Amino acid sequence: MLDFGAGELVVIGVVALVAIGPKELPGVLRTIGRSVGKMRRMAGDFQNQFSDAMREMELEEARKKVEAMGKEMSDSVADATKDSAVHIDSYLAEHAQATPSSATPAASESQQATESTSQMSATSLPSVELPAAPSFTPVTSDAVQANLFAHVEDTAAKTEAQPEGHKTATTETASADQATHSKSAS
């Protein structure tokens, strides 16, 4: 921009002081400072807009390159798939037309061995009749839960129906077991 040295700025300041006067000089300098600040902000905004435009252009070019690479890749995969399909079809067509006599000796030997084994096993094993499998009724969790609640209610009803002094055999054995354990622990 403009190059001013220290001597030139002193000369401009003395001329401004004489021409404008000491009273109005601070207001003029403030106005000049605001104007220079506005010009700098406008220059910065222009540079930012220019940089944004350049960045958008670069991104657009990169996007186009990526799309082109993706298209090339999908085309090459499609071509490879078509080529593979053609090779597989031709291979299958060649082997489908081949007669059993042209099969490899190892394959025919294994086929003969399988046939002889199946014939031998069919003749050597006695026929045994197996019993029928028992039939099971599927049980749902609702049925199990209902059965459990019925059992608990029956047990509770039986316990309430017994007189207080009457003990069942299971409660007597349980009490005897507890007494035995407490004596052995002492």
Can you walk me through this structure?
With 186 residues, this protein is mainly alpha-helical. The chain has a domain at 6-93. It is built from 5 helices and no strands. It is elongated and about 130 Å long. The relative contact order is 0.02. The model has no long low-confidence stretch (mean pLDDT 75).
Keywords:
186 residues; mainly alpha; 78% helix; 0% strand
Furnish the topology, listing elements before pairings:
Layout: H1 6-20, H2 25-97, H3 105-124, H4 141-161, H5 169-185
Produce a short descriptive summary.
The protein is mainly α and 186 residues long.
Looking at the structure, what is the overall shape?
elongated
Topology pattern, helix = H, strand = E: HHHHH
Q: Using DSSP, what is the number of strands?
A: 0
Distance between the termini: 108 Å
Helix content: over 70%
Point out poorly predicted stretches: none
Largest sheet: none
Beta-strand level of the residues, as a percent range? under 5%
Total of helices: 5
**What is the C-alpha radius of gyration, as a whole number of Å?**
52 Å
Category by helix and strand content: mainly alpha
* Average predicted confidence as pLDDT: 75
